[in-house]
Design goal:
The chain is an alpha+beta fold and about 120 residues long. The protein has helices at about 5-20, 70-85, and strands spanning about 25-35, 35-45, 45-55, 95-100, 105-110. The relative contact order is 0.20.
Length: about 120
């Protein structure tokens, strides 16, 4: 694995533990389809939560949260739609972002965006 992949995996582990400590239950990690990927799929009571984990070592260019662009949102929505069709789930859903920046506490953005 590359250094970037190792850092990404560590960030996802940190985010999963952070969310689990707040009552969310991990359903799946790294759900991939052609054209999109979901870092974490969690359950928050009755909601299915699709989580994008973003890590930045520096806050240049707006930091971790600002890096979830409309293109990235569309890819997440595509992967989520595929997951829902494949799983047959009828649960209400939302898209959250966990932004991690060096030497700062995680920033959890619930219902970060609505798919367009």
């Amino acid at each position: 694995m590359t250094d970037r992949q190792v850092r990404g995996q560590a960030a996802e582990q940190h985010a999963a533990a952070f969310l689990a400590a707040r009552g969310l239950v991990e359903v799946q990690r790294n759900y991939r389809v052609r054209g999109g990927e979901i870092d974490l799929i969690m359950r928050d009571r009755e909601h299915l939560v699709f989580v994008e984990v973003r890590y930045r070592s520096r806050s240049d260019f707006g930091g971790a949260a600002a890096s979830v662009t409309p293109t990235k949102q569309a890819r997440l929505a595509l992967a989520a739609q595929h997951y829902l069709q494949r799983s047959g789930s009828q649960a209400p859903c939302r898209f959250d972002v966990v932004a991690l920046q060096a030497d700062q506490p995680p920033q959890w953005i619930r219902d970060a965006f609505q798919p367009g």
